[in-house]
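fold-stage: in
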Amino acid sequence: MRRAASAPTVLVAAGLEGTGRVGLLADVAAVKAADGVASCVVTALTAQGKRFTLVPVPGPLLAAQLRAALLHARPAAVKLGAVPTRKGLAILWPGLVRLGVPVVVDPVVRTSRGERLSQLRPEDFRGLAGPRVWLTPNVAELAWLLGRRALPRSAEEATELATALLADGFQAVVVKGGHLPGPPVDVLVTRARVVRFGGRRLPGAGRRGTGCRFASTLATRLGLGEDAARAVGHARAAVRRYLAGEG
């Protein structure tokens, strides 16, 4: 499909996994499907077959990629995925937040199989809080960010924990509730309101890359100027299509 001239550029910084199931290639596909154009910074090279291998991109190359991406087009939004090292985050973050556009942070530090993607700590993510920064943890990441061993067991508990993170200074926290017991419920928490999005569990649940696609779609729709609830609704719909094998 031909993109309109006003299609937003979304700057995606994430790890590259060659099959496209997760990471940067999944992000690019999601941005395109949401009517955006992706500009990319590769933070790591990974192989996620029977054996897991990760090589962080050196700092000077990270900085060079960011300069090149910003020279190519001014982003309307940013999506930040896996960043393997604190040094890499320190190189990327000042340039990203200075853009003054919505920044969607997906706080992923492990693969769905449990392999370590990042050395970042909860305080590193919580230190990214700012008036245009969105945080999109799943329930396990939500508990980890707050130093809790037990996962939230309900949408109400997830809302309480998300509110605690919002107090750090984020614009919004969106909890992806696919791992809550019972029907999945996603929770959007902003200073103005709380919105819970209910649904049914789809047969494709368990496919990898849903978090990448959710965050990238959300960033794209925010870049188009949509309000919080509508943008989250588009991100949820994108994940449903993916789980149904339609994208």
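fold-stage: in (second)
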Amino acid sequence: MPCEGIYTPCLLPIAEIVEETRDIKTFRIPRPEHFVYRPGQFAEIFVPGVGEAPFSISSSPTERTFLEFSIKRIGSVTQALHRLNPGDTVGLRGPYGNGFPVEELLGKHLLFVGGGIGLAPLRSLVNYVLSPEHRLSFGDVFILYGARTPQDLVFRWELERWRKREDLTLCLTVDEGNASWEGRVGLVPNVLREVFPFPCTGWVSIVCGPPIMIKFTIKALRELGFAPGDILTTLEMKMKCGLGKCGRCNIGPYYVCQDGPVFSYETLLEMPEEY
């Protein structure tokens, strides 16, 4: 079925499924020719007979042939997705949202801080920045990524690829290690204070992860001297329709699915205190 725009789902076959962790899988589907997006945007994935839900696009726009969605099994739609196999059909509509302000990041040093499945939207921007056509447009790249346990780290093959690059710094941490874990053990905000002793002039931080991690990571970034306008994060928990119609993601004057999901901390300070 051909795609007819961002309102009508197009039906596409699942090309490949990668089991990242016990409850996270990455789904690779063909990228329609019309599907032009920016890092940080999301799409609606439709499972026939079940429903649809919004998911961040975890692949980079520089990848022309396919799209990737890294999805945690948590609700009815995600459970249905996890039961599918390569060759099965899903619906796609989008892209939606504002994405990361790539033009404003040109020439900046970039500090990526991710937790758990929060690495998925960051991965899109990381691989965009690291691509041969864009790498020289950005400064230093520092990636701090954490998960609850070593088994909960996603994109392990990608992490190994990043580790081998000489043009970035990668730091991994887990809340609880095991006998085979040789990396850091500690919560992401605490490790951030230890491993990022640089002057923050010229740096922008992009944060994504569980809400509690984002809260305390932003606190750590502020202690390190980052200005509110130099901290970017995502709000995704309440998105549903992607069109600003259902009202579920409304926060004050904002609709997360349209005005976000990417916001600067400077903008978050203008929102109601409970957010």
